[in-house]
Amino acid sequence: VQLVEVGGGLVQPGESLRLSCVSSEITLSNYIMAWYRQAPGKEREWVARIITTTRTEYADSVTGRFTISRDDAKNTVYLRMNSLKPEDTAVYFCHARLFNKNYWGQGTQVTVSS
């Protein structure tokens, strides 16, 4: 199963980006969808998850700045990232989980630097 992330790039501190995760093989609304990130030399860490369109959870480091959402008509999950900081620099991965099924995207690079 292929998950494709798009939307990464180079931005300055304080700016915003929106990442998208799409799949042509699975219906994302059937899965618990999440975003993770991995900075150079660090472990991969959980960032946010969406269980239902009204139930979302966030890591403390991004609460209030990041928003995860889902567009079922487009079969797409988004991560809106505002007020970006240099410490948000990482490769961001999309993840889908349903019982014992786990799927990962290939990742998209986000770099926050002045």
Can you walk me through this structure?
The protein has 114 residues and is mostly beta strands. The chain has strands at residues 4-6, 9-11, 17-22, 32-38, 45-52, 55-58, 66-71, 76-81, 90-98, 101-104, 108-112.
Order of helices and strands: EEEEEEEEEEE
Low-confidence stretches: none
Number of strands: 11
Share of residues in helices: under 10%
Biggest pleated-sheet summary: 7 strands, mixed
Structural class: mainly beta
Mean pLDDT: 96
Using the CA coordinates, give the radius of gyration: 13 Å
Distance between the termini: 37 Å
Short description:
This protein is an all-beta fold. It has strands at residues 4-6, 9-11, 17-22, 32-38, 45-52, 55-58, 66-71, 76-81, 90-98, 101-104, 108-112. A hairpin with a 2-residue loop joins β9 (90-98) and β10.
Tags for this entry?
single chain; 114 residues; mainly beta; seven-stranded mixed beta sheet; four-stranded antiparallel beta sheet; 11 strands; 0% helix; globular
